[in-house]
Design goal:
Blueprint lengths: L7 E6 L13 H18 L4 H6 L2 E12 L8 E11 L3 E11 L3 E14 L2 E3 L4 H4 L4
Antiparallel strand pairs: 1-3, 2-5, 3-4, 4-5, 5-6
């Protein structure tokens, strides 16, 4: 049994159509799970993609790394955890894991790196740093 870190988490349940012919979740769906959890994490911190976009700021993904450890199957319940760290002046990295419930088995672990942009050019995340509780 894995120890789940104390950070933001979001619960999910595998839907039948997310599985391939082998009966396991298709690898591309893990990115959907991670993305939805990141968006909910940002909303929990008062950060809205729509509001940022209206202010001329867009948050974009520049790199995704995922280590698949064990497959999820139809009807499995799981949680996605989200943590964040700064990488330099313009990059933020979301550290995310997926755990099957209730046994807390680690299913996948990933790092999603992104930047904030204005007019298509990377810019320092500005007040996002304070909202995210980063230094």
């Amino acid at each position: 049994m894995e120890l789940i870190p104390e950070n933001f988490s979001l619960e999910f349940k595998v839907r039948d159509y997310e599985c391939d012919i082998q009966g396991v979740v298709n690898n591309a769906n893990y990115q959907h799970y991670l993305e939805h959890a990141r968006h909910e994490f940002l909303l929990s911190k008062g950060i809205s993609f729509a509001k940022l976009h209206n202010e001329g700021i867009d948050l974009i993904v520049t790199r995704i790394e995922i280590d698949y450890k064990y497959p999820l199957r139809s009807k499995d319940s799981f949680i996605v955890t989200v943590d964040i760290q700064r990488e330099g002046n313009v990059r933020l990295a979301f550290i995310q894991s997926i755990y099957r419930m209730p046994d807390k088995k680690l299913i996948a672990h990933g790092k999603v790196t992104g930047v904030s942009t204005k007019n298509g050019k990377p810019v320092a995340p500005g007040n996002l740093i304070a909202l995210l509780g980063l230094k």
